Description:
The chain is of the alpha/beta class.
Amino acid sequence: MKVENAQIQWLDSGLPYSSLFDDVYYSKDDEQAESLHVFLNANRLSQRWAETADSCEGREANKSAELFTIAELGFGSGLNFLQVAKLWQESSSRPSRLNYIAFEKHPLTCEQLQRIHQRWPNLKAQSDELQRYYPDHSIGCHRICLSHDITLDLYYGEAFSQLKSRYTKVCRAIDCWFLDGFSPRLNPKLWEQQLFGLIAKTCNEKSTISSYSVAGTVRNALGDAGFAVQKLPGHGKKRHMLFAQLKISELSAVKEPSDKDFNNLKPWFKLSPVTFSKRTVTVIGAGLAGCSTAYSLARRGWQVKVIDNSDAPASGASGNSQLALRCRLFKSYSDTAEFFLHSFLFAARQFSALKIANSIDWNNCGVLQLNTAMNKQQAISDEELASMYSKQVIQALSLDTANKKAGAALNDPAWFLPAGGWINPETLCEAYLSHPNIELVLGKNVDAIKPERDNWAVIDDRGEHITSEAVVIANAYSAKKFEQTRHLPLQVVRGQTTQISANGLSSSLKAVVSGKRTVFPESQQCHVISASYSNTDLQESSSTNDNECNMTLAKSNFSDKDFLSTQIVSDRVSQRCNSIDQLPVIGMVANASAMKKTYAELSRNATATIDSPGDYHRGLYISVAHGSNGLASCPLSGEFLAALMTGENLPLSQAMINNLSPARFVIRDLKKQKG
């Protein structure tokens, strides 16, 4: 999942020069002025934002018009983005949200980015924020939430494959495209007709495209993809620039390029776009899954009501006083491995932002993963990890270096996750719920969910109804109680944590150490040890044996057996929720009975071709079964659901969405003749 960074040389002028493409990043004739002329002004951004804002004023319907989406081929140092962000922030009349999507095969390193940004002191506010969260590694979509109304999606890797991976069936059209790659002569793959064919599929009649290049090959390729192309006056010494709009009459004739390396979207995973006029939603569950989803929805203007049957948020499996943020690791590439990597990275960025804004108890101390923490049944070698993950994600440390990172003498060398750390989940959930668009209702036990005209009614054990346009089920295993989700194969996993007092030795622990048990640095003069694991013994009371086992295995992380105290302060039992395939269940809830009828032929012929789209409960969503990875997977899952419900670009690929879809179990059961 590694990417190759840009190879930069620095010209005497201070401009960056690409050794790989033998080309400069910017014109010598004032790169900022050229960016404004070719991209921001040519696409009439200020005027279109004002027109969009005026069309939305005083209207409840057509909320999707409050979003403006820009996509770019060739992010480079982000100059176009920075200028768009500055213009956006200075515009008095604009839509509610900006989604900027960019594709880059060879990202600049953080150091290169910082050096280039020094050229533009007038963009310092925007560049400082971008640098704070900018990733320079790992393929796939890096979602970065900037300010309160700008979302940047950075796709690293081949533009064609990354654009092809997007799930576009439920996303609104992209409003304008910036074509700003290296010269077509030097980087022809970024200007090919098959790529422009994909771009055409993201556009409507109002979408615009601009570029500095008016090469004949570019104009012809865009024309073949269905665009009407024209030349406009260029900037500085360049006579012309390119401007294009889609000819809608020809859109149906533009065929998406076929490629045997990409799977067609299975019909049972096809979702229909859903528009919500009032954007009201009820979230059932105030743990990490529910609170993170509520937060992502609230940031998009949804009015959110969070319901939980406990007397405080984060009272279930999310309620340990310390939770570790780490990446679930894999030995080879898969869409699942990419999902867990980007979940981890997004969570780290979000926690850092919340620490600045809400002072949450996020400790980016890093996580040391000992060899004893690795899954012995699917052991991952040092070589496999090093080939899969960038050093910014995970680093192999010698025993001596690991000891220094830990501030303790360990029993094994370790892998270090520098972006990891630990957090108090209660402060995290409180920060999520502090958004003014969120109302928290505690002590309410939900018994049923029923459709009610165009809304959903959430019904408690007293028969009281709470009505909203949409519902998100985020109450872990308790989702089994609802008629719409009781078919899901969810499992309960019992875990017990042990809290011990800190001593003179253990107080020196500086990082989370994960071996056969995980030991956290001192907090309030105590260490948390987590956690026992059982899916057979589900007793709710704590176990002396589990405490003893936790203590013994925690001590095995360290070479000094007296490093940890033996004084137990408290313990805690919680029940996590897993699915049978160990993946979260996230997305629109499938209508299981209808899908079993539609796809009944699969029980007789597992390879049958059925064109009918899947059947889903309109406005009903779910996020459960995050298991022991919930701290990492819940934030990005919440972002995905919020984007799905709002019609924005989705931060997960089509393959990831399929892998996590609640419908996957219905189809698997049919193919195994269990339906």
